[in-house]
Specification:
alpha+beta; three-stranded antiparallel beta sheet; 4 helices; 64% helix; globular
Length: 151
């Protein structure tokens, strides 16, 4: 599952970014639902919400460390914890997608623009959904442990 999910996220992310870069000029915006959802091409040299702009080397190192730790934990998680393993695979695929951008361009290509939130991309979605699945599964595992202790 790790390779399939991570690779699927990576391919979707990189193809979408290629299409955006090849069809839009930076800061160009195409309304999909006027004033609600636009495709807007922006480059982000920072992290979420453009924090720590220009710290590309820092983000590359942190991402590599996080990915190595995630792969390590993926193989230590029992196969029955499917959501946890899926979450790790999604997060790795998303992290790899943005890592490739940082290495190639020194910044990340973003394009989903909901006008009330900073512009983001498929890799960002995968990381967020992955982390949510990891948290959800860890909470469920913790609750199962508590029920066992009560018995």
């Amino acid at each position: 599952m790790l390779i399939f999910v991570s690779l699927a996220v990576l391919i979707l992310d990189q193809v979408s970014k290629y299409l955006v870069k090849s069809h839009l000029a930076e800061f160009e915006s195409i309304p999909i639902i006027l004033n609600v959802f636009h495709l807007t091409y922006v480059n982000n040299s920072g992290a979420a919400f453009s924090l720590l702009r220009g710290r590309t080397s820092f983000f590359i190192i942190v991402t590599l460390l996080a990915m190595f730790l995630a792969v390590y934990f993926y193989f230590r998680v029992e196969k029955k914890w499917v959501l946890l393993r899926l979450g790790i695979a999604l997060a790795i695929g998303g992290a790899l997608g943005n890592l490739i951008d940082r290495v190639r361009f020194g910044q990340v290509v973003d394009f989903f623009d909901f006008r009330i939130w900073p512009v983001f991309n498929i890799a960002d979605c995968a990381v967020v959904v992955g982390v949510l699945l990891i948290c959800w599964q860890l909470l469920r595992m913790d609750m199962a442990d508590d029920k066992e202790k009560v018995k």
